[in-house]
Fold these 2 entries.
Entry 1:
Amino acid sequence: MEMTETYKLYIETYGCQMNLNDTEIVSGIMREHGWETTDNIDNADAVLLNTCSVRENAESRIFKRLTHFSQKFKKRKNKLIVGVIGCMAERFNERLIDIQDIVSIVVGPDEYRKLPILLEHAMGGVKGVAVELSKVETYEDIIPLRTDGVNAWLSIMRGCNNFCSYCVVPYTRGRERSRSHTSIVEEVASLAAKGFKEITLLGQNVNSYHDKELNKDFADLISDCAIAVPQVRIRYTTSHPRDMSDRLIEVMASHDNICKHIHLPVQSGSDRVLKMMNRGYNREHYLGRISKIRELMPNIAITTDIIAGFPGETLEDHQLTLSLLQEVKYSGAFMFKYSPRENTKAFDMPDDIPEEEKLRRLNEIIDLQNKIAKEINHHEKGNIHRVLVECPSKRNPEDWMGRSDTNKVVIFPNPDAKFSQGDYVNVKIKRSSSATLFGEIVE
Ligand code: 5AD
Ligand code: SF4
């Protein structure tokens, strides 16, 4: 019998949840070709960085990491293969190899099936690049290698057709395409059978999900998933405010196991800026969606993304973002300083807000949002949340952490680990911070 050697692969993942799921897909592909994944970089035969290009600082982190690898592995006897995959691979192409000699493979988000052969060539000393984008690749048939036992990510679509003027994603991840409705519902059912308790459906803009053959949209999909696995929580991200339909809101409200949390990135509170961003909605439309959501689900948690200092943003525009935060009262937000990205429409607009002023606006947004989140959490005192138990808390192993239906992190004592990962407990909230709720299990 022929003996085949098992190689070890170490993957570091940066950026969004799509990337986390892509890492699982890559691990799944590599496993089929005799590669094992390892958590220990020192005994790996190959290292892959799954990268993000959404902001410049995400990219500079990767370049620092590659420089670190060049120094660290200079003296290593066995040759270590270093590869860059994901959005930066797409954006930089073979230039990555020129910039960082240690890089021997560069593979974009739609070419992961080529990784086994490229790695094999790289072990023979031949560098390789694969960055073709595809109109059809969804990795539907690949079984992702999932390591978390409770939460599973599931990409239902890839790419984006929105071309928000600041965003590089349509260029690095290509055109939008949806996986088939049937294959997704089947995978959801099989994840439930394997014991997963929470499944998050992922896409850059899930509201434009569409299965052409069955003519099913995202509301149909999430509804069928919820029905298929009544004992499993279903989450999703990300929604686009322009496409958030009444029907989707109604479907969310009518299924107990669809989590009551919506991430609805607004980006700015000013119509003028929203227009320059090519977002396709104005403040009034956005607030209309929020009212509809809250009308049907009064206790829902809403989170958002904000960009501070977009080209041409005036102080008045900035004030409108602050007033929108006051009006909506988000339970959480990801807040960013505008970062110009090559090839995007906004790249051609003068990046005219000085760095310190961008930072000042960003900090003002962060301070206000933290205050609001703290207030919201303060009102949680006395409430009882159904919490899915995840793991011991990092601060104190007597305490455990889990998440509420509304996606809040909840910390509670769990002496002798009476409840374990994947159990549901009811927790009565005693106190809170801006990001976390603390409570006790009630029977
Ligand atoms: N600069 C700053 N933030 C950005 N985002 C996307 N592109 C940029 C950029 N060029 C933010 C948006 C998006 C989130 C994923 O990242 O808020 O919703
Ligand atoms: Fe980027 Fe806009 Fe697509 Fe989101 S919806 S990935 S911000 S282009």
Entry 2:
Amino acid sequence: MESTPRHKIPATLIPGDGIGPEVVAATVQVLDALGSPFIWDVQHAGIAGVTHCGDPLPDVTLESVRKNKLALKGPLTTPIGDGFRSSNVRLREEFQLFGNVRPVHTIIPGRYDKIDLVLVRENLGGFYVAHEYYIPVGDDPKAVAVATGVNTRDACARIARFAFEYALKHGRKKITVVHKANILKVLTGLFLDAARDVARDYEGRVEMNDIIVDACAMQLVLNPWQFDMLVCTNLFGDILSDQLAGLVGGLGMAPGANYGTDTAIFEAVHGSAPDIAGKDVANPISLLLASGLMLEHVGKGDLAQRLRTAITQTLNTDHICTRDLKGTASTREFAAAVVRRIEST
Ligand code: NAI
Ligand code: MG
């Protein structure tokens, strides 16, 4: 039965910056073809927030997410060095989206085949708390730079428990805790300690081991199949999730979900890609897959499955893909091809 607007689920849609509006438009088009359960409230953030509302994180956007507790978000540009603080980080803080889940799996076999990994990133603490300052020396106001990372035992235990519960729910067998407890003995040692404590509650159900982040980076290149789930502090999770994307074809293939206790924001792992913005060449698959995670979140796993099947058929049967995957399709052409697949099944 067609759902009527009355039965639709209100969700905030943030087109974002750079390639954001292009991949968001492609995603909305594909969701519409699936019979989207969502009714969108379009709001702005990032540079688009400044352009539309004079603020990189306008109050109306925050109010919309607060009301809907659900959002699909394009990437937001953050100025490097000076300038406003990341609207992504602020959104995660505002809604206490502590759990960032970034699954990757091979759709087009490339350098690696049969990759099926989930990275869980602690999303609020570590070095992202922005406790940073300069110490002036002589006439150099920026002679010394200092950053403080903050991890609490509660937050570490919370992300570990979240990861173990995710493993149980999704049939995952092993969690590898990524740290640098040999050097950052306190900041990441606490993360490891807390994870080990939590792991005891899951003994016999989910296995846990740990690895130092640099060794993990190398092992992910040599033998990624040894891993099942990775649980990381904020900064290591950020870095390794781009590396995971590289195992399955690049940043165009990597979705992400930010979960709090009552709010969830779905996005791609990639950023606003200013180098290709406005050219209709961006790969929309990351955001499409993120919308699949959003469909699962609202109990529409059947639609998510149809979406993933249509993407797989478009890539592997129709051989249509964007240029980052060595194809020639534009963003719009790729979206249209996925829509054709959905409409023919
Ligand atoms: P990026 O992820 O935007 O781009 C890195 C490289 O990957 C570029 O060469 C880009 O063209 C390519 N790429 C990314 N997504 C692609 C796609 N869908 N299809 C094809 N190619 C794609 O990272 P970059 O350049 O470091 O950051 C640009 C801006 O994005 C910065 O302001 C950064 O702060 C922001 N950013 C925002 C994120 C978010 O909103 N969650 C996440 C990461 C970065
Ligand atoms: Mg990143």
